[in-house]
Amino acid sequence: MSIDSAMRISVGGMNRQVDTLNQVAQNVAVGTTVGRETYDAGDDMVNMDFAEHNFKANFRVFQIADETMAQIINMKR
User: Fold this and answer.
1) What's the structural domain count of the chain?
2) Is the pTM of this model over 0.90?
3) Which of 7, 17, 30, 33 fits as disulfide partner to 51, beta carbons 3.0 to 4.6 Å?
């Protein structure tokens, strides 16, 4: 796998986690409106936690790829 591919994949992963977080936020906003006594935030809290950890993991992959690319560029100088 190339560094470029790793960066693109990690950015795609971060974008998917942002989408998940947006969906959770929408679920919470709709679920907590007046008249919805059956809303259970448990699933949304778990999804939010997973999305946060997945985002951090993808971000770390991006950071490592960026650092590797910088080292390669510095070696060429």
Assistant:
1) 1
2) no
3) 17
